[in-house]
Amino acid sequence: MSDSNEDDQQLQVEPHARPLLTVEEQIVHMKAKGIAFELCTEEEAAVHLRTKCQFFHIYAYRKLFDKHVGGDRDGQYVGLDFGHLRALSRMDSELRDVLLPMTLDVEHFAKVRLLAAAEDYGEDGYAIMRAYWDSLPDDQRNFVKRELDRREGDPYASDVVRKYRNDMPLWVFSEVVSFGAFQRLMRFCGMRWGDTEILRLHYLQKWVQSVRNFSAHGACALNDLSQPPVGKWRAPDELTRVLASFGISKRLRSKHLRSPRMAQICTLIHLYAQVAPKGKTRSKREAALAALFLNLDGLCGILPEQNPAVASLEFIRRLTVGEGLLH
User: Fold this and answer.
1) What angle (nearest 5°) sits at the alpha carbon of residue 200, between those of residues 198 and 204?
2) pLDDT 10s digits, 50-104
3) What pTM was estimated for this model as a whole?
4) Which long-range contacts (CB under 8 A, 24 or more apart) does 184-188 make?
5) Residue 109: partners with Cβ closer than 8 Å, 6 or more residues away
6) What is the pLDDT of residue 304?
7) What's the Cα-to-Cα distance from 145 to each of 132, 141, 162, 181, rounded to whole Å?
8) Which of 29, 96, 120, 153 has its CA 20 to 30 A from that of 13?
9) How far is it, in rounded angstroms, from Cα 157 to Cα 174?
């Protein structure tokens, strides 16, 4: 009997400190934190939370607002309305919709560059891949093999993976593996050829990969674009030099590039200008950027002028329009 009681005690689970809140409870919680519902009514907010954006996601943007210190409203947010949170969430979504295609373009044109370089160096596409496989430590080789195993079941790549699995050439491998695996191949080729340009592209693309991931997964970006990281960190030296050459002051560079997220986005813009040739694709991305900022002008109008997200977006605008990095 005592053993049974001990088992029951072990099975008991402590209640979570932050239980799931109903939509009505979420609104009550926000009101207690000083969030107003003037730009957006409570009824409109409830519909938004039920159908368009979950609470955990939209509430993340509260970090962009200060809190009262002392007094009756100690700990409550200053001048924050649910309409601000909704606008910031929409801004973030539209920003991701523009950035993701740019990251995919960078990956595509990097593959084109790598294959062109292989031709210039007189490489045999099969021999260089055999050398690459031989260079991999066992754990990395097994990791890539498992990735190819999964691709054999992919309806879009299975035929070509099965056809070349035992002796895969450079151009096939580049198309069927993940962005990370392609990055490792690019580094190997740059080292093999002593090609500093390929190695430079490899290094900068590592920053672009993070933008690709957060954009594809719908993660929040604007809620932390102005925050410095924990620990030592700095933006790529090349990016800092390029921004300086465009007349961006040291003060502004220090202010915006202290955030890893901002540095990653700026690196994407810079790298895109380097690898994307002028033509239909590049023109489409430039038009999308212009439309983004045209749409955001109205949304930014309801936010406090000194909001960090507005300042970050204005900095990105400066890099992409007029005489910015894409021109």
Assistant:
1) 120
2) 999 999 999 999 999 999 999 999 999 999 999 999 999 999 999 999 999 999 9
3) 0.88
4) 184/140, 185/114, 185/132, 186/110, 186/114, 188/132, 188/135
5) 275, 276, 277
6) 77
7) 13, 6, 12, 11
8) 29
9) 12
